[in-house]
Design goal:
Blueprint (H helix, E strand, L loop, with lengths): L2 H47 L4 H47 L7 H36 L3 H8 L1
Helix pairs in contact: 1-2, 1-3, 2-3
Length: 155
C-alpha cells in the first residue's frame, strides 16, 4: 500500500467527520428543543383541565395544537439528522473499503455524502420553521394572557 495514498484516504474521510460533528450538534439542539416543547405541552395540558371558560379553553387547545406541530417538525428534523449521520458514516466506510480492500465502489461515497448533505439541509429548514413557530407561540401567549390569571393578580 502506497503511503501517499493513505494520506489521500484520510483526507477523503475527514470531510464526512466534519459533517458528522455539525450534524451531531444540530441533533443535540433538536433534542433539547423537543424536551422543552414536551414540557410546555404538559404544562398546557395540566392547566387545560381546570379551564371552564369556552373561549379560554379554545385558546389553550390552539396552544396545545401548536406545540404538537412543533414537536412533529422537530421529530422529522431529528429523523433526517439521523439519516445524515448514517450517510456520513457510510461515506467514510465506503472510502475505506474502496481504498483498503480493493473493491471498487465507484461513486457510492459521493452519493452517500450527497444524500447526507441533503438530509441535513432539509432538517435545517424544519428546524428553522420550528423556531418561527416557537416565537409565534410566545408572542401569542404574551398578547393573550388568560383572564383568570389577570383577575388572580389583581385580587
Amino acid at each position: 500500500m502506497d503511503p501517499s495514498n493513505n494520506h489521500a484516504v484520510l483526507a477523503a474521510m475527514l470531510a464526512p467527520a466534519f459533517f458528522l460533528t455539525a450534524t451531531a450538534s444540530l441533533l443535540l439542539s433538536a433534542n433539547n428543543r423537543l424536551a422543552r416543547i414536551i414540557d410546555r405541552a404538559r404544562t398546557l395540558l395540566r392547566e387545560l383541565v381546570d379551564i371552564e371558560d369556552g373561549v379560554e379553553r379554545a385558546l389553550y387547545e390552539k396552544r396545545i395544537a401548536l406545540q404538537r406541530l412543533r414537536s412533529l417538525l422537530i421529530l422529522r428534523a431529528g429523523q433526517l439528522l439521523y439519516v445524515a449521520i448514517s450517510c456520513f458514516v457510510g461515506t467514510s466506510l465506503a472510502v475505506a473499503v474502496d481504498t483498503f480492500t480493493g473493491h471498487r465502489l465507484g461513486s457510492l461515497p459521493i452519493w452517500l455524502a450527497s444524500f447526507g448533505v441533503l438530509a441535513m439541509f432539509a432538517a435545517s429548514f424544519l428546524l428553522a420553521r420550528e423556531s418561527t413557530l416557537a416565537v409565534t407561540a410566545i408572542n401569542e401567549e404574551m398578547d393573550h394572557r388568560p383572564s383568570r390569571r389577570r383577575s388572580g393578580a389583581a385580587a
